[in-house]
Design a protein that fits this description.
Elements lengths: L1 H38 L14 H8 L3 H12 L2 E5 L2 E4 L2 H8 L6 E2 L21 H15 L7 H20 L6 E4 H18 L5 H4 L6 H15 L3 H7 L2 H7 L8 H18 L11 H7 L4 H31 L2 H16 L9 H5 L2 H13 L5 E6 L5 E3 L2 E3 L4 E5 H4 L3 H4 L16 H12 L12 H18 E5 L7 E4 L3 E4 L2 E6 L3
Helix pairs in contact: 2-9, 5-13, 6-7, 6-21, 7-14, 12-14, 14-17
Length: 509
């Protein structure tokens, strides 16, 4: 009799046990959600973001992060909650406050995810402020074009190749060639960054080919990486030694990130072993890093992040400025006229120099306005509130809170740029006095970071921006092929842009 009842009794106990587990989990989640909400309760934001990281994950996954953040911050204000422990801001004064040279903020855990080599930290991913500052001091001279690194000469060499390709392959007398500018400029950027970094371009531009699959690797990784970075649990797991030992990239891999790491390792090995043909070699950043004390492993880490960080952001800026100029006939005409008059008056060399470009006011206004309209970075780069907390926008923020930056909204802030801030109008940088012009430029400059967190590649980026549009518009006329849909653009923490087709035509002087 007893044995006959045992299965029923067991089933009853099992059901009770499962019920207790479910109820306990629900209570635990409810309590943790309340605790999470309570911590930053004074800051508005999407309801789901106050107790869950899933809001940020799914917002990023839409590939419309720039638009979603802008829409939400129009409702909630310049300081908004986007996670249980995360705020996002777009006020430049707040960014100057937390990124200042004397600021005691440090980097949030988000930075640990910015790795193309997941086995160590570059200057971009290093969270320890002292280590970051030391590494940045070691690499800073090379990025500034000091020593034997002639940045301007290297940019000129790649620009010459770009112009030649457009002339010989795409320009047809009596007609016009069609080119995907988004892809061509990407090849240009990959070759320039590899030339500047290690002294030898990969040859993507010359052959219009993704030689080492870097572009395809980046395109496949970036969406996943940016979504994953919004959830701390995911960030920690995919960066853990456990995961990397099981599924991490290996330099012996024949494809993917491992293949990329293998290329970097072999490049550095060749330099340290001295097995390098010195004939006609120009100085490069790798040489300067070694002179300033970087170890072999540190050089590998810096080269691994230099290409994705140095190519994707500047490429976005080049595409964005090109799109907006071609979409605004009056801007197009004024820019070409300034270039034409400058050449006629012998104020523009061939190729134009950095100093000559800086003295072209309309060119400078176009670049500033283009950077503003399509910021190289959408959001990210959180700094962590120091011990004791801080006051942001008049409200106390507890220590340990991560404060992200919404660059997209910051550079379209109507309080700064006027009621027409969503309109591409370079004249806004010319019609104001010197004080206001400097203030507007200072805001745009935040796209490159600020203070100790300033992007080391800023110097190279500005040399490119100052030169490339003059060389393109002095040689050619352009037209957007698909005006109803000029490109495909996905907004994550940065942009992915493709299918930007343009006609290349002989310049009508």
């Amino acid at each position: 009799m007893l044995s006959w009842l045992e299965p029923s009794l067991y089933s009853s106990k099992s059901g009770l046990f499962i019920t207790v587990i479910i109820l306990g989990s629900a209570v635990w989640y409810a309590i943790s959600a309340v605790i999470a909400w309570h911590r930053l309760r004074q800051f508005p934001g999407p309801m789901a973001a106050s107790f869950s990281y899933l809001w940020g994950f799914f917002a990023m996954k839409t590939a419309r992060m720039n638009n979603i953040l802008a829409e939400e911050q129009r409702k909630h204000g310049k300081v908004m909650r986007i996670g249980p422990n995360e705020l996002v801001v777009y006020d430049p004064d707040i960014l100057w406050q937390i990124n200042g040279v004397r600021s005691t903020y440090d980097r949030g855990d988000w930075y640990a995810s910015i790795k193309f080599d997941p086995y160590g930290n570059s200057v971009l991913s290093e969270r320890d402020t002292a280590k970051h500052d030391k590494r940045k001091a070691q690499i800073g001279a090379a990025y500034a074009g000091k020593g034997n690194v002639n940045l301007e000469k290297k940019v000129d060499s790649q620009l010459s190749i770009l112009i030649n390709i457009l002339k010989t392959k795409y320009l047809k007398h009596g007609g016009a060639g069609i080119v995907d500018f988004s892809q061509l400029i990407r090849y240009f950027q990959v070759d320039l960054v590899t030339l500047v970094g290690s002294g030898e371009p990969w040859g993507d531009l010359v052959h219009e080919k993704d030689h080492f699959d870097f572009i395809s690797i980046a395109d496949s990784i970036v969406p996943f990486l940016h979504c994953m970075m919004m959830i701390p649990l995911f960030r920690d797991f995919f960066a853990s030694q456990f995961f990397l030992s099981l599924a991490g990239p290996k330099e012996t891999d024949e494809k993917g990130m491992g293949k990329f790491l293998g290329i970097i390792k072999r490049t550095v090995e060749k330099r340290f072993s001295g097995d390098l043909d010195q004939t006609n070699r120009q100085g490069d950043m790798l040489d300067e890093w070694i002179k300033h004390g970087l170890t072999r492993r540190e050089c590998e880490l810096e080269l691994a992040i230099q290409l994705p960080a140095g190519s994707e952001t500047t490429t976005t800026a080049l595409r964005g400025i090109m799109l907006y100029v071609l979409s605004a006939p009056s801007v197009y005409r004024k820019l070409q006229e300034e270039i034409t008059v400058g050449i006629r008056d012998a104020r523009i060399s061939s190729p134009i120099t950095q100093e000559e470009a800086r003295r072209l006011p309309y060119l400078q206004a176009v670049i500033q306005e283009g950077l503003r309209m399509v910021s190289p970075v959408v959001m990210g780069f959180p700094k962590r509130v120091p011990a004791g907390g801080d006051t942001i926008d008049g409200k106390f923020v507890p220590a340990g809170t991560d404060v992200f930056v919404n660059f997209w909204s910051m550079l379209r802030n109507r309080d700064t740029f006027g009621e027409d801030a969503d309109v591409f109008r370079p004249e806004r940088f010319l019609e104001c006095d010197e004080v206001n012009r400097a203030y507007l430029a200072k805001n745009v400059d935040l796209a490159f970071g600020h203070g100790r967190w300033m992007c080391p590649g800023k110097t190279l980026a500005w040399i490119e921006l100052n030169k490339i549009f003059v060389e393109l518009f002095r040689n050619f006329d352009f037209q957007i092929v698909n005006p109803e849909s000029p490109w495909k653009c996905w907004g994550y923490s940065s942009f992915l842009i493709d299918d930007f087709w343009i006609r290349v035509m002989e310049r009508e002087c």
